[in-house]
Amino acid sequence: MTGPRRLDRRAAAATVLALAALGLVPLLVRREDVLNLGVVFLLSVALAQSWNVVAGLAGQVNLGHAAFFGLGALVTRSLWVGGTPIAAAMALGAAVATAAGVALGLVAFRLRGAYFAIGTLALAEILRLTVGNLLSEISTLPAATIAGYRLTARYYAALGLALGSVLVVAALVGSRLGLGMQAVREDEAAAEAAGVGALGVKLQAVAVSTGLAGLTGGLFAYYHISYYPQHPFSPAWTFDALLITFVGGVGTVHGPVLGALFYVVVKEYLAVRWVDFHLLVFGILFVAIVLLLPGGLVEAGQRLSRRLARGAPRPGC
Amino acid sequence: MRQRAGFRTAIVVLLAAGLAAWPAVSAAQAVKVGAVVPLTGRYASGGAQVRAGYEIAVEDVNRQGGVTVGGKKLPLELVLLDDESDATKTVSRLETLAAQNVVAYLGGFGSDLHAAAASVAEKNKIPYLGVAFALNKIHQQGFRYLFSPFWKSPDIGQQLVPMLSAIPAGERPRRAAIFQEKTDWGREMAAAFVEAGKGAGYEVVAHGEYAPGAKDYSDLILKAKASQADVVYALPTPPEGLFGRG
Questions:
Q1: For the residues B97-106, what does the mean pLDDT come to?
Q2: DSSP conformational letter for B125
Q3: SS (H, E, C) chain A
Q4: Interface with chain B: mutation pick from A140, A149, A270, highest number of B CBs within 10 Å
Q5: Pairing between strand B67-69 and B72-74?
Q6: Which of A2, A140, B90, B166 could be A226's S-S partner, Cβ–Cβ 3.0 to 4.6 Å?
Q7: How far apart are CA B39 and CA A208, in angstroms?
Q8: Res B8: pLDDT
Q9: Each residue of A241-293: pLDDT tens digit?
Q10: Counting one residue from A and one from B, how many pairs have CB atoms under 8 Å apart?
Q11: Cβ of B86 and A236 within 8 Å?
């Protein structure tokens, strides 16, 4: 197992370096569209990584991740517009999201099986409908704030968050807690027999995951000028995170980053290039990746480096 | 036809404003306008109509030689992108268009997409022409780059009065039910329907709310029936707006 693990570590290091290099983009490029795409990409990395912690590492499928993203956005936006500094507002948003996640986990993890998935799905829908009913007014930043709006600030905040989320997953993977999560994922009963406190490990995974999702939601609230408060609770956010993680490589450090690159940047390129059938092209690409690379885009890198290590490429592998 | 003419004049007016605000645009061969329209997703059917409108308008303007800029006629060039009915993508696509140096934005469909788009236009200081949205609230936020050649909620309410007066007095509806969508536009429209009742001489006898995306309206319908309403006012947003037909 040392081979693949060393490979993963190298890939993780390369991912961190590549993300850090993105810090130069605003200095080199003055184009708002590039920065904006960068914000959306980095936001997707952070959201996918946060889903990856609970579902990829700990094996607890969360089908209502939008709930925590939305809670982070809701709390952050309300506080920030009310005058709280953005960092404090985001921290509080993350705290609320974490509290909701742990509270749900405490209940759902008393049962085995699909209850966590069902519980999260239900929570997200309940919150979406409730927020939609109670806060039906659009949330738009005041005209004065828009005049002073700088994408660069959002870009660096998103970069910090994406980098942080990658580092969190990288630190978890090899740690005692992360190994415990992976043991629970593989076989909960065996993990418990080996001395892993499954409930505690799962709750910690949920706490880390929902905290990150809450921060990402806060970033969305900081970035998006005008949206309906229920928009961040839309199931699309859950499925974006899920699809990005799966297409990249679930349970890996660099998978969600590759996934977001495909899911956000390639998709955006296609949308601009082929206005009328971009979704069709994207769909075909997506299906092709899932069929040819069941382990996600990460697998392509692994196959490539294995082939390079063997020397002569073999056709039709 | 009147709407088309409205489109055209609005585009021309906007272009004049856009050119004034965008000195970077040189005397190029064509005047580029950028549209972000939902061609897929939940607003796809509305977006298709908006797109057709733009294409007809641009074709029409170009057939007559284009727009006059500094005494010279230049053709219009329409760059149209799909936002998948997703406000986050609306923002991305508008930024892409800004990088392509469009002189004006043309809007899509749906209040949430319009609100997101109008604020990006404000940030980028590019005039935004929002057709197909009636939400009045966005216009009261001090945006300087937002234009809309489309009637707003209070106007729709006012139009009800002459429309109902055209019906013979004996057959005019007297008892109205309002099915209010629980959104800001729904609230504006409900207020407009109530207001219009004063002029049109109907009484609001039932007033119920539904959430966007609701599937079951039986409680609203029963309420309207029980109060013997002879007309129902609601929002036309698809798909919910279609439930009352038939």
A1: 93
A2: T
A3: CHHHHHHHHHHHHHHHHHHHHHHHHHHHCCCHHHHHHHHHHHHHHHHHHHHHHHHHHCCCCCCCHHHHHHHHHHHHHHHHHCCCCHHHHHHHHHHHHHHHHHHHHHHHCCCCCCHHHHHHHHHHHHHHHHHHHHCCCCEECCHHHHHCCCHHHHHHHHHHHHHHHHHHHHHHHHCHHHHHHHHHHHCHHHHHHCCCCHHHHHHHHHHHHHHHHHHHHHHHHHHCCEECCCHHHCHHHHHHHHHHHHHHCCCCCCHHHHHHHHHHHHHHHHHHHCCCCHHHHHHHHHHHHHHHCCCCHHHHHHHHHHHHHHCCCCCCC
A4: A140
A5: antiparallel
A6: A140
A7: 38
A8: 55
A9: 999 999 999 989 999 999 999 999 999 999 998 888 888 999 999 999 989 98
A10: 99
A11: yes
* Cα–Cα dist A101/A72, whole Å: 12
**Which chain B residues touch A if contact means CB-CB below 8 Å?**
39-40, 80-82, 84, 86-89, 91-93, 95-96, 98-99, 111-112, 115-116, 118-120, 122-124, 135, 137-138, 141-144, 182-184, 186-187, 211-212
Q: What is the CA radius of gyration of chain A?
A: 20
ipTM: 0.86
Q: Is residue A220's pLDDT more than 50?
A: yes
- Is the pLDDT at A239 greater than 80? The verdict is yes
Helix (H) or strand (E) holding B206: strand B203-210
C-alpha distance from residue B46 to each of A149, A278, B156 (Å): 31, 19, 18
Asked if B81 and A271 come within 8 Å (Cβ–Cβ), the reply is yes
Per-residue confidence (pLDDT) for residue A137, from 0 to 100 = 84
Query: What are the residues whose beta carbons fall under 8 Å from the beta carbon of B58, sequence distance 6 or more?
Result: B11, B33, B76, B77, B78
- CB of B233 within 8 A of CB of B177? yes
pLDDT in tens, B162-178: 888 888 888 888 899 99
- In which element (H, E) is residue B129 found? strand B128-129
If we measure between CA atoms, which residue out of B149, B240, B223 comes closest to residue B186?
B240
The values of phi and psi at residue A165, to 5°, are -65, -35
pLDDT tens per residue, range B223-246 = 999 999 989 998 877 666 665 543
Per-residue pLDDT tens for A95-119? 999 999 999 999 998 887 788 999 9
Type of residue numbered B238: P
